[in-house]
Amino acid sequence: MSDVPPFIVAIPARYGSTRLPAKPLRTLGGVPMVVRVAQRALQAGASQVVVAVDDDRVAEALAGQGVDVCMTRADHASGSDRLAEVAAHYGWADDAIVVNLQGDEPFAPAAGIREVARALAEDDAPMATLATPITDAHELFDPNVVKLVRSVDGRALYFSRAPLPWARDAFAADRDTLPAGVPFLRHIGIYAYRAGFLGRYTGLTRTPLEQAESLEQLRVLEHGFPIAVRLTPEPFPPGIDTEADVERAERWLSTQP
Question: What gap in Å lies between CA 122 and CA 115, rounded to an integer?
Fold first, then answer.
């Protein structure tokens, strides 16, 4: 890990969830989900791990885990807004690298967490994220899967729920298989920011494309800020959003040594 710059991991963990009540405290293999996420951040080698909470019960679950807990307001519109409050609370230097690891990603690979930090360090963009190749046509056409295209210098050009890019000639003939040589990419929702950009980001006005696609990262592009994109070195298992996801995760854990 010597080539990975120092980085902070900040984990927004909101107690309330419409689809999965008390989500951070849902247990997976007997361990609260928020604890599993914090453990992943520690395994990645973060210089500091902060969990941004809005409920004392989540803070209590993290006692003795070797991470900082920051109580934040309950009315934040997004995880990024919650992390901006955390950055202001700790007074992180403007150039500090802050990785936003979602509180519902209990199986995020440590290598991926390090890679998004490295991506930001090696680019002068204020923000970075990860992607992975799409090899299945069903995945490309699924609106719940966020796609992206990037430039030759590895920066995001656009994010969309629609199939992207559109292989015109190939898809005119067949939409059941993906044509070779087209860089289809699925976005992975982990971000790294320079701490100084967090406050600025949350102050940006909402934008038409962001609202049309319901993708917050488009606000950054529409306001003219670049986003560096790297391929993840290891797969990111799906996050936990529903009861079905919890059951799937429990079945997967039961197969692990």
Answer: 10
Neighbours of 171 (CB within 10 A): 18
Cβ 99 vs Cβ 117: under 8 Å: yes
Cα→Cα distances 197→22, 93, 108, 254, Å: 30, 11, 24, 41
Among the listed residues 135, 107, 112, 120, the one whose alpha carbon sits nearest the alpha carbon of residue 256: 107
Closest by Cα among 93, 68, 218 to 147: 218
Residues whose CB is less than 8 angstroms from the CB of residue 79 and which lie 6 or more positions away in sequence, other chains included: 12, 14, 52, 100, 102, 103
SS3 readout for 193-247: EEHHHHHHHHCCCCCHHHHHHCCCHHHHHHCCCCEEEEECCCCCCCCCCCHHHHH
Q: Report how far residue 221's alpha carbon sits from residue 219's, in angstroms, rounded to the nearest whole number.
A: 6
- pLDDT per position as a tens digit, 107-128: 999 999 999 999 999 999 999 9
| pTM greater than 0.85 | yes
What's the whole-number mean pLDDT along residues 4-20?
89
Helix (H) or strand (E) holding 251: helix 243-254
